[in-house]
């Protein structure tokens, strides 16, 4: 395995109408529309404080299109309209490889299985084309059609053959926890295809999303991922699928000591012991942020199971376009730990060769 120097473990694509150009002729009715708010959008503000002017319409629901856009990236680069510009910007940031996650699918989008399957297939084929043009530097997390288990294998085999290194999931999926047996065939496929499970900040529960509609994303997105980490371990899912590698992305790593302490207490009540080096034992990796207290977190997470991402293309509490360069100059942790976080750990998580 050749060593990749710096891997951005959490970068994004921002979907455009081109994303849906891979729909089959009999699926075009499911194509998301872009509509303008006009002056009425002024009350909806992006994370940068700008008025939101456009929205996706999917299954009759408005999904604000510009809420989480980072203006510190060029539009044509974050929307993948100019792959060479994206690669050139990666060179400036001293990034060798980016792992691409979606934007629209961070929230619940589709309840109709036919609609979801059509959108997922088109999204995955869009990413496949990006990978082909990306000179092996733009790998990606495949979106499975959660509501159509019969299509999981075909879709993931296509993704694996076209640059996917992970299976994208959110903290909740289709009103289910990730420890639900519904997902066991998906985890089995992850093992067979050597794809990690990338649990990214977000959730696919319309009920939960509605409860927290007015808040900024902490409860409906980030806490869902932390809860998924806890549920997977307490329900013994990594033991059922020992070859699966699990990544928990865009939630910082500051929570790891708290959750491990809680798990240890619960294990004791059951007459069990939480394994030492818990993350390594369960093949779990967590994406840290440059604002984390890394010396403290490393005591619990260990040097081999932290990765880092820029959140490229977005603007929220996890976004730091210079994250990989900043980690390199962090004098609070050892040079060996820095090297592992920047490259080898992500290479192991995503199975990059």
Secondary structure elements and their pairing?
Layout (H helix, E strand, L loop, with lengths): L6 E6 L20 E4 L17 E5 L2 E4 L10 H4 L4 H10 L4 E5 L11 H21 L4 E5 L9 H10 L2 E7 L1 E2 L2 E2 L6 H10 L2 E5 L5 H6 L6 H17 L2 H4 L5 E4 L6 H14 L8 H4 L2 E5 L5 H8 L4 E3 L14 H6 L6 H8 L1 H7 L3
Parallel strand pairs: 1-5, 5-6, 6-7, 7-10, 10-11, 11-12, 12-13
Antiparallel strand pairs: 2-3, 3-4, 8-9
Distance between the termini: 5 Å
Strand content is 15-25%
**Total number of domains:** 1
Q: What is the highest CATH level, the class?
A: Alpha Beta
Counted beta strands: 13
Based on Cα principal axes, name the global outline: globular
Mean pLDDT score: 92
* Radius of gyration over all CA atoms, rounded: 19 Å
Counted by DSSP, the helix tally is 14
Largest sheet: 8 strands, parallel
Question: Low-confidence parts lasting 5 or more residues at pLDDT below 50?
Answer: none
At the fold tier of CATH, the topology name is TIM Barrel
The fourth-level CATH homologous superfamily is Metal-dependent hydrolases
Spatial order of the strands in the main sheet? 1-5-6-7-10-11-12-13
Fraction of residues in helix: 25-40%
Could you say what the CATH architecture is? Alpha-Beta Barrel
The secondary structure category is: alpha/beta
Q: SSE string, helix = H, strand = E?
A: EEEEHHEHEHEEEHEHHHEHHEHEHHH
3D architecture notes:
The protein has 353 residues and is α/β, with parallel strands linked by helices. The chain has a single domain (7-31, 68-350), classed as Metal-dependent hydrolases (TIM Barrel, Alpha-Beta Barrel), CATH 3.20.20. The protein contains 14 helices and 13 strands. The strands form three sheets. The protein has an eight-stranded parallel beta sheet with strand order 1-5-6-7-10-11-12-13, with helices on both faces. A three-stranded antiparallel beta sheet has the order 2-3-4, with no helix packed on it. It has a two-stranded antiparallel ribbon with strand order 8-9. The protein is globular. The termini are close together.
């Amino acid at each position: 395995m050749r060593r990749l120097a710096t891997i951005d473990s959490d970068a994004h694509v921002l979907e455009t109408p081109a994303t849906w150009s891979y729909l089959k002729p009999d699926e075009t009715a499911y194509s998301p529309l872009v509509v303008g708010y006009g002056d009425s959008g002024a009350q909806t503000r992006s994370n940068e404080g700008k008025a939101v002017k456009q929205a996706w319409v999917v299954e009759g629901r408005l999904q604000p299109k510009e809420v989480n856009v980072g203006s510190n990236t060029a539009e044509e680069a974050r929307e993948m309209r100019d792959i060479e510009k994206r690669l050139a910007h990666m060179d400036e940031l001293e990034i060798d490889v980016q792992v691409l996650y979606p934007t629209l699918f961070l929230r619940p989008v589709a309840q109709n299985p036919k609609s979801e399957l059509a959108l997922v297939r088109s999204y995955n084929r869009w990413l496949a084309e990006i990978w082909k043009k990306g000179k092996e530097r733009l790998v990606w997390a495949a979106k499975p059609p959660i509501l159509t288990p019969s299509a999981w294998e075909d879709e993931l085999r296509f993704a694996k053959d076209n640059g996917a290194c992970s299976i994208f999931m959110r903290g909740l999926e289709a009103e289910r926890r990730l420890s639900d047996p519904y997902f066991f065939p998906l985890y089995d496929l992850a093992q067979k295809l050597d794809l990690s499970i990338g649990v990214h900040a977000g959730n696919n529960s319309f009920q939960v999303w509605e409860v927290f509609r007015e808040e900024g994303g902490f409860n409906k997105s980030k806490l869902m991922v932390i809860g998924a980490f806890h549920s997977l371990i307490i329900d013994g899912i990594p033991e059922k699928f020992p070859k699966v590698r699990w990544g928990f992305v865009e939630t910082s790593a500051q929570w790891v000591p708290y959750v491990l302490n809680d798990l240890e207490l619960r294990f004791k009540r059951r007459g069990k012991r939480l394994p030492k080096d818990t993350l390594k034992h369960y093949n779990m990796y967590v994406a840290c942020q440059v604002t984390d207290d890394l010396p403290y977190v490393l005591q619990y997470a260990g040097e081999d199971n932290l990765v880092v991402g820029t959140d490229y293309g977005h603007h929220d509490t996890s976004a730091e376009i210079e994250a990989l360069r900043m980690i390199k100059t962090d004098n609070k942790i050892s040079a060996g730990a820095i090297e592992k976080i920047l490259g080898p750990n992500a290479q192991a998580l995503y199975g990059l060769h």
